[in-house]
Structure formats: structure tokens, C-alpha cells
Write a structure and sequence with these properties.
single chain; about 15% strand; about 325 residues; Rossmann fold; seven-stranded parallel beta sheet; alpha/beta
Amino acid sequence: MSNASRWSDFDFASLAGCRALVTGGAGFIGSHLAIALNSIGVKVTVLDDLCAGGDPKTLPAEIEFVRGSILDLPVVEKCVKDCRFVFHQAALGSVPRSVEHPRLFHDVNATGTLNVLEAARHAGVKRVMFAASSSAYGDSPTLPKIETMPVMPRSPYAANKVGCEALMSAYAASYAIDTVNLRYFNIFGPRQSPDNAYAAVIAAFAKALLKGQHPLIFGDGEQSRDFTYVDNAVLANLLAAGSDKPLKGMVLNVACGQRVTVTELAHAMAALLDRADLTPVYKPERAGDVKHSLADLSLTKQHLDYRPVVGFGDGLAITVKWYKSVLG
């Protein structure tokens, strides 16, 4: 359980005792979600092929861990048996990596999601929660981003996620299964890996600063993001699972509703680590990156009664402290 949020403080009694599958549940967001579900009495199975570097040792002993891929339909079918809910977090991430490997990303993210949905409907699952992405909004200058805006994917990764949203909506309309698309905005927190060339910006900055290096910014640094601490994504998933009304494949933003530039982020992290001398170094912007991102949360509040439980500043302090403990 996160130090920032105590899930027992919320009323999730309706979920206790049920069985749930978390795909990608040994990874960054999935592990936080699996641990939270376990803490409120859900019987959790985690399916993860560990390709993203997840560690099943972070999971409590009560959680069943299965090493396998969402591309292996028989394995997915076995894991989803007797489950009431599926929290589908498994995916290949990273916009730049998807530009380099578009077919691989389509196979895992789109075909893998189809496998999850097929297994879930045949198993009689009540609802599938899908980890959608704010990259769906593309480079529209309109702020904040509202779920009814046209999608404008600018990378293969974004296109995968948009296609999966459409599958979720289609299955809710066509079969006796409910679904919801939770559009995550720049989720960060402990256990987000800094150890690859495509690391998310907060993880990459932490690694650089703790090595005494200047953080690298691709672009002018004025690009902004609605950085969202991981507990907020967990809360949205729990609220969606516990909702007593059909969600019908709707799209709902999951964020904090606060915009922070990448340059501001770099300075804030340097200050937390007492390394204000490590100012950012700017490089050319990367293909597929969007300029600005900020969520409108009205619809999520309306349908899930969602409000962020951890703000950006508090979440960043917790996260930097964690990176210092493992990398410092």
C-alpha cells in the first residue's frame, strides 16, 4: 500500500471477496493497483511477462503471480477464470519506441487487448477497466482536454491506445460485459523504471540528477504535462470497479488537473535533491511528442465521484525520496 493513500479509508466493501485479474500487474502502475486491491480484500491474480522489467517480489504473498503474455490466449483464459473484474494494464509503453517498432506495438497493445476482451467475455467478467492514454488527444491546442474532443493520435502508441478504446466501447455495446476507458495523464511514482532509453521523464530526471548529471529535455522545455501521482490512477480503477451503474465503454480522464512545464519539473526535482546547480540541457524535440496536456476532470467526477487524492507536489516529493533510496 502507498504511503500516500490508505485504501481502507474508502468504502470499497462491495469489492471485498471477489476475484480480479490485473494484466501487467508486476509493472509500475499494475503493481500499485494489485497491492491496493489485495489490501481491500480482493483475490488478485497478476499476469505479466516481465518484459517491462516488473518485479513480482513487490507483490504480497497472497497474490497469485502468473508469468505469461497477453498474446497467449490460453494463458489469459486460465487467469481470467472466475474473475469478476479485469484491470487491463499490460502494454508496451513509450511514444518514441513505438515510432521505432510500430508492428510490435500493434501486436502487443491491440491484439493483446482483443485477447483480454475475448477471454473476459467468455469467462463472464462483469467489467474491464482499461489503461487508456492521454496521448489520444494528440497535439490539439485546446486546453483542457475533454473526453468528447476528436482523437488525434500522433504516434503508433497513441493509435494503439485509441484502437483499444474503440474495442472496449464495441464490446460493451455488443456483449454482456461492461468496460471503461481510463485515460491516464503522465502517471508517475515509486517503482517507475529509470533503466531504459525510453524512461518516463520523471524517472529519467531522477536517474540523471542522482548521478550528478544535468537532466536532458527534448524540445524547449515549455511543453507541459498534467503529471499524475500513481495513487490517483489506482483510485480511479477502484472507483470504476465499484461503480453500481453501467459505464458502457465511456472514456474518462484520470489526472490532477494541473499543468507543469518540463523545465519547471526539472528545477523542482533538482531542488528536492539539493542539486540546483544541475540545470537542464536542451536537445531537439522528438517525433510523436505532444506540446501540452491538461485534463478536464468534470466527467470523471460526475461518473465516478473521482477527485485526486495526492497532488503533484506531494507526489513528486514521495517519488524523489523513493528514487534517492534506490539510486542514491
